[in-house]
Amino acid sequence: MKLTTSWLADWSLSHRDASKFGPSSRWSNKDMDPVLPQDRTWTTWDYIAYWVSDATNAAVWQLASSMLAVGLSWRQALPAIAVGNIIIASVMVLNGTIGARLHIAFPVLNRSSFGFWLSYFSVISRVVLAMFWFGIQTFTGSECVYQMLKAIWPSTANIPNHLPESSHITTVGMMCYFLYWAIQFPLMFVSPQNIRYLFTVKGIIVPFAWLSILIWSFVKIPAKISLEPLHANLSGSALSWAWLSALNSALGIYATLSVNIPDFTRYAKDEKAQFVQLFIIPVAFTFIGFCGIAVTSAGEVLYGEILWDPLRLIDKWDNRAAAFFASFSFILATLGTNISANSLSAANDMTALFPNFIDIKRGQVICAIIGGWVLCPWEILASAPGFLSFMSGYTVFLGPFAGIMVVDFWLVHKGKVDVPAMYDPRGRYRYWNGVNWRAAVALLSSITPTLPGLINDINPKIFVGKASLLFNIAWLYGFFSASAVYLFFSKAFPAQETFLADVILGDDVALNTPTESSTQNAGDEKEKVNVLFASHVD
């Protein structure tokens, strides 16, 4: 027991990384504290680069193309993408403004609406989801590496395989996977304040490369020839439900970030810096969706098959230089997306779960190891289609999460919240034993009706009748139903202790905290913070 205690003590974060807000290291550390003014470095241009960077990834490219497979025309698919991204951008700005105004991370903010213990449900869900998607995106990146190496050395395609078929990966596949993971790993140590430079580089190089691919497709096959035959083969209610399902897919692709966007907007120089998301998200994502449709359509005319995966299209090219640069752009695209949407998100959530032992850098390293190797993403992709359906259907949870966050801050409390109390489990956001039952009721009432559709999506052999239709609009239904239920119960049975005359920010506590590292000073400061917490509780 003594040895175990000593080992844990060796891994615990030093007092320099301790929280200046939490009454104990159980609830926060320096990375979870409100961002200090000198660390608020993200400008409007950084958010433009961030979203142009995130829009340029293979999943968005394939999204519109896959809509054609269910019977929509390209003229119907693009509006679905545009409308979906206008909706998700609106939620991004609403939740993003909270982060920019309060300068706190999603796991901390979540405590004010869900309660300290119920907030763990969304946080743990996010950690698991982010780790799995980190591995899957890393595998996608490894396929980009393969195409790039093959463009340089065509003999790469002839490297003999020494791994058994049951491993679901080849020798060259494992080599490319390790190379991509090794390229990605050093970026785990870059702080969120500085990672914006990666998004800027990606936001310049990748769109230029993909625009070049789009121009190539129009030069090879004029749009009149490639796009004109793409007419809808659905009508009536079938067309309506297919369009709504496409809209839900457009919403779902970045539904996760609509929840944890405060993890990034808390670094904004001011609230207005992140307002540009309302414009740049629909424009960037709709344009990339169009690229996917146009290039895929041209590829079908050229090669006689539908190549939804852009890497399969690149594999057909004879021009090795073009294949190299296109593959490099996809590597950079996957790299930026994997860090922004997965490793950083998982790290923030793990920091909230184990603040005494995990900071953002350690969290990213853990995500890279567990998500990249322990979970064996090549095995998941090869043998677990039902599990992947569940991962994709996770929007049934994300819509309600986002709705409750928006309603709680903007409609229930009208922006008047207590930031220091979000670090104190005994404070005003304790609710009932750490659970805001209003949020629990809203979650249950909005998620339950969509579960039959999710079950059918995981296993189509389980027939659920028309109950599966609600799953086609899971995010929209979850967002609005959870919002309505939460607002009703919050107004009918208000948690009086959470209502304030004005917002209480964390800047005063953070800026007045002494920087001396002595134990006595640290203890004195902790006592001051505890007194401050007590004064905030009605």
UniProtKB/TrEMBL annotation:
It is a multi-pass membrane protein. The chain crosses the membrane at residues 77-102, 114-136, 169-190, 197-218, 238-257, 278-303, 323-344, 365-388, 394-413, 434-455, 467-489. InterPro entries: NCS1, Pur-cyt_permease, Uracil/uridine/allantoin_perm. It holds the Pfam family Transp_cyt_pur. Keywords: Membrane, Transmembrane, Transmembrane helix. It is found in: Membrane. The keyword Glycosyltransferase does not apply. GO terms for cellular component: plasma membrane. Belongs to the purine-cytosine permease (2.A.39) family. This is NCS1 nucleoside transporter family. It comes from Hebeloma cylindrosporum.
